[in-house]
Design brief:
The protein is mainly β. It has no helices and 11 strands. The termini are far apart.
Length: 127
């Protein structure tokens, strides 16, 4: 059974940084396209970054481009999201997800296309 566990969330001031980790167990993470999503109360879950199996292809939502960096270490079965220059609008629950689709199409796949999800980690950015 595939399990994803996020960690690294917390409370940070505006302009600060956090690094989220997503550790995959049950199968090798290199089998999956990986994505990071976030969801604020009353809003839909949105994809903010995705990375191909090899790590060569990466896509970001405009809202985080230039501030967030997704990466993966297949040897450690872990995917990361480095977040910098954080803003109060970044406050949300952050989720990682694994996609078994064979083709890389960046952020075109919505949450419904991802097969496995973590439980989420809360990020709160104070003003």
């Amino acid at each position: 059974q595939v399990q994803l566990v996020e960690s690294g969330g917390g409370l940070v001031q505006t302009g600060g940084s956090l690094r989220l980790s997503c550790t995959v167990s049950g199968r090798t993470v290199s089998n999956y396209i990986m994505g990071w999503f976030r969801q604020s109360p009353g809003k839909e879950r949105e994809v903010i970054a995705a990375i191909s199996r090899s790590g060569v292809s990466i896509s970001y939502a405009n809202s985080v481009k230039g501030r967030f960096t997704i990466s993966r270490d297949n040897a450690k079965n872990t995917v990361y999201l480095q977040m910098s220059s954080l803003k109060p609008d970044d406050t949300a629950a952050y989720y990682c997800a694994a996609d078994t689709s064979p083709q890389w199409i960046g952020l075109a796949r919505g949450p419904g296309s991802y097969d496995y999800w973590g439980q989420g980690t809360q990020v709160t950015v104070s003003s």
